[in-house]
Amino acid sequence: MMKVTMSNLTVLINKNLYQYIQSSPLDTDLEESMMYSLKAGGKRIRPVLLLLTLDMLNEDYNKGLQSALALEMIHTYSLIHDDLPAMDNDDYRRGKLTNHKVFGEWKAILAGDALLTKAFELISNDTIIEDVIKVKVIQRLAKASGHIGMVGGQTLDMQSENQSVTLDTLETIHKTKTGALLNFSVMSAVDIAQADSVTADLLNTFSHHLGLMFQIKDDLLDVYGDEQKLGKAVGSDETNHKSTYVSLLGKNGTEKKLKHHKDLALGCLKNLPNQYDPSKLVDIVDLFYSRDH
């Protein structure tokens, strides 16, 4: 079996991700639009986190590969839709023109729709995990992606433009819009490995702190980040009149909040049962804390 490192798992995900978007008998270039965004880059952190969590739970990470690929497709669809003029109206993503700038708005919308539905096809066709676990994973992904998860968080985020929101509301936005898929990364691995309830509770709490870390760091990078490293313009939150951790807490307060959730996330990992080695998840926490793009 391949050595379990973040870089090796990223290669594995990329190797398998693209083969599922095959040309269709229909006379369209929809698949080209789907592939454009799938190949736009990124660290594949969500699927990597899923596979690393499985490995940490002493389970074969290959059991989570289909679920990891499905997760990346849903994440990619959400980025295509987020960039649309009706949403964040971004021209660049990871240094490349956004999907709608290349293929037009209607095709970008349909490419996102196709990636969303392809994700559930992938998991339903998984032949490695048992059917009862497969259903549990599908249910978890549907909930994480839907109206009380990522889509609900995006709705609340859009509704909150041009007005001040409380820190509690901002946290709710980020727990759903950003955190829900990161929670799925960890907890679908718990489902597949059939971990005990103590481990499940600790990892569930860990994933929530990780999700908040990710968004708090995003807020910092949107103001203080390097545009070349980010691959897009900074200051989009201010342009769209969005409340952020930086606008509510200032730079120092936001950095303290980031450190607070880092410490709580690491505390969850430290309290895991002794049969688990969480060192690679500790590396993920450090990555979230120190990333510059």
From TrEMBL:
GO terms for molecular function: (2E,6E)-farnesyl diphosphate synthase activity; metal ion binding. It is an enzyme of class 2 (transferase). GO terms for biological process: terpenoid biosynthetic process. Its EC number is 2.5.1.10. One of its GO terms (cellular component) is cytoplasm. Coiled coil: none annotated. It catalyses: isopentenyl diphosphate + (2E)-geranyl diphosphate = (2E,6E)-farnesyl diphosphate + diphosphate. The keyword DNA repair does not apply. Keywords: Isoprene biosynthesis, Magnesium, Metal-binding, Transferase. InterPro entries: Isoprenoid_synthase_dom_sf, Polyprenyl_synt, Polyprenyl_synt_CS, Prenyl_diphosphate_synthase. Its cofactor is Mg(2+). NCBIfam families: FPPsyn. Belongs to the FPP/GGPP synthase family. This is Farnesyl diphosphate synthase. It comes from Staphylococcus saccharolyticus. The lineage of its organism: Bacteria, Bacillati, Bacillota, Bacilli, Bacillales.
